[in-house]
Amino acid sequence: MKKKFFNAKIYRNEAATEMIVENGKITHIGTNLPKCDEEIDLNGKLVLPPYVDPHLHLDYVYTLSELGQEGAGSGTLFEAIELWPQFKKTLTVESVKRLAMKGIQDEVSQGVQHIRTHIDVTDPNFTALKAMLEMKEDLKDKVDIQIVAFPQEGMYMYKGGLELVEEALKMGADVVGGIPHYEPAREFGEKSVHDIVKLALKYDKMIDVHCDETDDPHSRFVELLNGLVYMEDYGSRTTASHTCSFGSADDSYAFRMLDIFQKTKMNFIACPTENAYLQGRQDTYPKRRGLTRVKEFIEYGINVAFAQDSINDPWYPMGNGNMMNILDNGIHLAQIMSSEDVKTNFDLITYNGAQCLNIQGSYGLDVGKAANFIVLNESTVYEAIRKRVDVLASVRNGEFLFRKKEEAFDVALSL
Ligand SMILES: [Zn+2]
């Protein structure tokens, strides 16, 4: 059956207002397209490809509430890392699935259809990884999930950490993770970066490293990661997440690195709400923003995306899976609101995330691709961002995952 979605404003395609979908795929995009069996009026609203959340910890979501807390502790990254192992001991496949499902619902009900999740594999039972591998398969018609084998407790903080990451890749994780700034000495951090790249090449996996998530301007593992993947021509399959320290780095160093990042084509992910909350904790005043150099990445044509990172976990209590909120915070912290910036701001939670996930070939609103898109409650990009509008509908393979009405008042304001 052919289906036509009409009266739409299509992001990055101003000339088109209609799409025809057949067998779940977009067959036409344009105007005045032929009549179809079913015609769906999108009421002049903005249509985007689905939101992408390229960095989320689905084995941590809602664990803060499970711990009986309604707020965080002192709020430092390292305190949260220390708290986690106590909770980890209590996990079962069922408990991980139950909480992860709440996080997935939060995201998918607000327009996300692609999630990259870091799963802690520093657990010899791989409880969370087993749960997530099953969920990835079970939910694939609703949401695409990529799994990062993430050594939360480090590769070299104890014996056998590296082997756990390798085993997780054999079990089916899609991406090699790491956390070099958490390793006990710089040399171990560097060793872990070498091992991450070796594992990725050995198992033909992507790379996504928690890299320099600290205000210490001397934490420069991103430099080594970038150098190694440059040598292997592996930049486009590699992502450096966080790189907060790069926001504190000396300018002469930073601009030298920006030139090299540009050549390597490595991807970057910033988590604006999470790192605005976690970083700058040892600063008195002025306090740093915790954000990497997002504005400069954009100016240099280096791919950078925004991500949620945490929902209700010991690292960050307030996440709710709303990517508009992430975008809103990110464009404030990165100071990207010029009329030129606004035109492409949505890329930070759509196309740029898709590029980090290496799905850009199948992602986007083009003929021949899956009919996956969301409908926002505004008709222009600027108004949608300024009003932080909701997602009214999410369509996957041509079918509504959900569709809701615009809000209606019992008593309307009259001025
Ligand atoms: Zn993270």
From TrEMBL:
Keywords attached to this entry: Hydrolase, Metal-binding
Protein name: Cytosine deaminase
Gene3D superfamilies: Metal-dependent hydrolases (3.20.20.140), Urease, subunit C, domain 1 (2.30.40.10)
Residue ranges of every copy of the Amidohydrolase domain listed in the record: 38-400
GO biological process: cytosine catabolic process
InterPro entries per record: Amidohydro_3, Metal-dep_hydrolase_composite, Metal_Hydrolase, Metallo-hydrolase_Enzymes
Transmembrane segments: none
EC number: 3.5.4.1
Entry keyword annotation includes Hydrolase: yes
Gene Ontology terms, MF aspect: cytosine deaminase activity; isoguanine deaminase activity; metal ion binding
PANTHER family, sorted: CYTOSINE DEAMINASE
Entry-linked SUPFAM superfamilies: Composite domain of metallo-dependent hydrolases, Metallo-dependent hydrolases
